[in-house]
Hints:
It is built from 7 helices and 7 strands, in the order βαβαβααβαβαββα. By secondary structure, it is of the alpha/beta class. The longest helix has 23 residues, at 162-184. The chain is globular, with a radius of gyration of 16 Å. 38% of the residues lie in helices and 23% in strands. It has helices at residues 13-22, 41-48, 58-62, 65-72, 89-94, 117-126, 162-184, and strands at residues 2-7, 28-35, 53-55, 77-80, 99-103, 131-138, 148-155. It has 2 domains: 1-96, Rossmann fold (3-Layer(aba) Sandwich); 102-175, Rossmann fold (3-Layer(aba) Sandwich).
Amino acid sequence: MKKLAILASGSGTNAEKIMEFFKNSDKGEVTLLASNKGDAYALERAKKFGVPTFTFSKTEMEDGLVLEKLQDAGIDWIILAGFLLKIPESLILAFPERMVNIHPALLPKFGGKGMYGMNVHQAVKDAGESHTGITIHLVNENFDEGKIIFQAATEIDPSDDPEAIAAKVHRLEHQYFPEVIESLL
């Protein structure tokens, strides 16, 4: 059974879906959730599942403390679920092709630094796109440029505002992210 760690910066709805999914999996289990924000609601969601947590600063991540904690916990895979910091090269090298992220758009469109959450959905709306979706990809040294593993799309109605687009994207995230992670294990 593979040990999974989730890195999250926000409310943690994807993290919760992943923890819920893997509580009944024979392929993997979430054994740790870590956040760069002490007030991230993802930390509370982890408590519901009895998943240990820790918080860290950007400096602690860059200095190797996070890598050390992940290695000490015997982590096999890292899952980024709404995690907003750039991953340092040392962490990428320690988990080659074993770190996966989800992006709330169909990459390569609407990716890169600053393209997260409502920023993405607003950009999609402003561009007049007829479709958007999710991209699940491996993590490399550049924002949103790792090997694409899976994409799913949804239609956008011209009357959809960014919040409506976000709701459609969240449904795709919750439906597919846990299953795609399990398939990678």
